Amino acid sequence: LQAESAEAQEMWRGFILTMAEMKVPADLVLLPGHIFQLSEALREERDRRTTLGPTEPPVPLMPSCFFKVSRGEAEQLLERNAGSGNIVLRPGGHGHGISVTTCQMLNGTALFKHYKVVSVGQGYQIDVDTP
Question: Which residues cross the membrane (predicted)?
Answer without folding.
Answer: none
